[in-house]
Amino acid sequence: FTSGKLKGMFGTVEIVADKMVNYLNEQLAEGDVKEFEMKHVMGTYAIDVIASLFFGLEINSFLEPNNEILNVSRKVNEPTFGSVVRGTCQFLYPSLEKLFIRMGWREQAPNMMRQIVQRTIKMREEQNISRKDMLQLLMQLRNKGEISADDNDWSAKAGNDASKPMSIETIASNLFLFYVAGFETTASGISFTAFELAQQPAALEKVQRDVKQALEKHDNKFTYEAIQDMKYLELCLMETTRKYPGLPILNRQCTRDYPLPDSNLVIKEGTPIIISLFGLHRDANYFPDPMLWQPERFVNQNYDPVAYMPFGAGPRHCIAQR
Ligand code: HEM
Ligand SMILES: *[C@@H]1O[C@H](CO)[C@@H](O)[C@H](O)[C@H]1NC(C)=O
Ligand SMILES: *[C@@H]1O[C@H](CO)[C@@H](O)[C@H](O)[C@H]1NC(C)=O
Fold first, then answer.
1. Which ligand is nearest to the CA of 112?
2. Residue of minimum CA distance from atom 40 in ligand 1
3. Is residue 44 part of a domain?
């Protein structure tokens, strides 16, 4: 996730974005008005980006809603009795969930994803295919022992020392994590931004101007660099992740007995800690009038960074923050 790698993958993302724009244009014949469920449109876009960047699958979920990845995604999000029990356990009684797993309770979705990853890696290795995506970088890590510092080097050909320290299982697990962490957060971040802009014509106009000016500055080409110049758009996304944090909480574990100031309570080492991002981000002490969506509040970095952690903090912060 360095800027060089992101730049390299930009074209892959842009192809997916074009599919979304084409879909919307087709739905909106000249001059027509049509209602869209934005969460659905953005969720479809997000899943295609993930399918393409992480799993190396070029799909168009707008046109083919019954594709493999969407099927897996539906499995992951299915609110069955079992998945609700299991999800609750993951959160409240992790040891109970481990017991379930030992008793043989396997989830279907990770298995389906493992098969997709296995098949794609095999195909790329057999046919010497190299593609600018996350899967390719993980194959490079697996086959060469490291990810190349050269942003133009996407090759994953094994060297002489053919030991493979990273199993396909590990690659598949990481990709599954990226899917789980990236799908809903991306889809809701974009749709909440659209939702707020739809209610604030002045801000909408401002962001349109911002995008237009940035494009003009870059020969009307939609590039990685052009996006860096869309400053007001960035403020909008910051404000959205404040008011609607993609994850409502952070999880931590207390590593050392901690006496609470002005109290005789002690948080014992090993205690699981839940930090409410909703609570912090909507606290009027830190963000006056917190329910007002107002990108300008982030101008000049004029906020308390400790009260604003939409991507978490420390060594385990979100890898996708940039
Ligand atoms: C607006 C979009 C997103 C938001 C608001 C968001 C938010 C977060 C938050 C709050 C955490 C927990 C950090 C902590 O505990 O300190 C996290 C972790 C993580 N996120 Fe994101 N995320 C977003 C998008 C993504 C995307 C697109 C990916 C896919 C690559 C991703 C991958 C991850 C991973 C892998 C972790 C775990 C990192 C670790 O434990 O070391 N996130 N994210
Ligand atoms: C996805 O699921 C649908 C309905 O269950 C099924 O008809 C379709 O064949 C599946 N697609 C793939 C690629 O497996
Ligand atoms: C892929 O590369 C290897 C080693 O460079 C070569 O032996 C093999 O024939 C190539 N396969 C194809 C399908 O090009």
1. 2
2. 316
3. yes
Q: What is the pLDDT of residues 24-68, one digit of tens each?
A: 999 888 778 888 898 999 999 999 998 888 888 888 999 998 888
Residue 67 CA, closest ligand 2 atom number = 13
Residue 263 is encoded by which pair of tokens?
A: 């109290």
- Counting other chains too, the contacts that 193-196 makes at CB distance below 8 Å and 24 or more residues apart are 193/236, 193/237, 193/240, 194/38, 194/42, 195/38, 196/236, 196/239, 196/240, 196/243, 196/293
Q: State the CATH number of the domain containing residue 70.
A: 1.10.630.10
Q: Is residue 14 part of a domain?
A: yes
Give pLDDT < 70 ranges for the chain.
159-163
Q: Which of 71, 73, 75, 78 to mutate to test the pocket of ligand 2 (most atoms within 8 A of CB)?
A: 71
Q: Does residue 205 lie within any of the structural domains?
A: no
pLDDT value at position 2?
81
> Nearest residue CA, atom 14 of ligand 2?
68
Residue nearest to atom 43 of ligand 1 (CA): 318
- pTM above threshold 0.70: yes
Of 69, 105, 68, the closest CA to residue 86 belongs to 105
Examine the domain organization and report whether 66 and 160 are in the same domain. Answer: yes
Write down which residue in 143, 169, 191 finishes a domain: 191
Structural domain containing residue 170: 3-191
Asked if residue 182 and residue 76 are part of one domain, the reply reads yes
Q: Could you tell me if 142 and 7 lie in one domain?
A: yes
Structural domain includes residue 97: yes
